Amino acid sequence: MSNRIMMLTEDLVARCHRVLDDAGPEPGQPHLEEGDYREIVSEILSRRPQGQPFWLFAYGSLIWKPEVPHAGERIATARGYHRAFCIRLRRWRGTLDRPGLMMGMARGGQCKGMALRLDEGGIEATVDRLVRREMTAKPSTYRPTWVGLQSDEGPLTALAFVVNPQGRTYAGKLDEHEVAEILARACGHVGSGADYLFNTVRNLESLGIHDRGLWRLQELVAAEIRAMPPAAEAR
User: At what angle do helices 193-206 and 212-227 cross, to 10 degrees?
Assistant: First the structure.
C-alpha cells in the first residue's frame, strides 16, 4: 500500500456529485445489436490461446468494479499501451450539454494493471457480459484484443479492451489541463469524472501501482475543484 497522499480527496469528489436522471442513449447514435454481440463474443473465444487460463486485463474500473467472477489475480504489465482519457462520454459520467471523459488503453508506452483469471464455468456468458459492459456505440469505442503481459510469475496472454481510434466516441489525444477541467466538472447519472479518477488512482496505489500520469492528473483535478465557486461545481 502506497504512503502517498492524494490531493484529490473524498470531500472534493463529493463537491462534483449531483443527482441526475438517465437521459438515455444519445439521439442518432447507432448501437450494437444482438447479432453484433454474438459475432464479437464468438471471435474473442475463437482467438483465445489454447490450453491457457482465460485472463482479463483490468487497467481502470475493472480493477475496482470487475463485475465478473474470477478465480485469481496477478499484477501484470502490458507493454506498448498506456492509460489515456480519450473517450468522450455524453451519458453515464457526462451529459449531452457537459460531456465527460472515460479512460481507455491507447497505443504507446506501458500500462501496469491487474490480470484477472476468469472462472471457466459459463465463460461464454461471462465474455458476453463483459462485451456488453464495455461496448455499446457503433462503431465501438473499444477493440477486444488479446495482448501479451509480463508478470512476476511469468508471461501470459489476456483479453484487453483497447481503444479504437475509429470509434464513434474517440476524443483523440487531449492536453492534461483540458482533461482535468472536464473531469472536475462532468457528471452523469452513474457519477462524476472526478469520482472515476479518484477510485482508479486510489485502487492502483493500494495495489502498489503508481501511474505517474494519473497521479499528476488527480493533482490537477483537485486544483480545478478547489478553484471553482460552489455554484459552478459539477455544472
Answer: 140
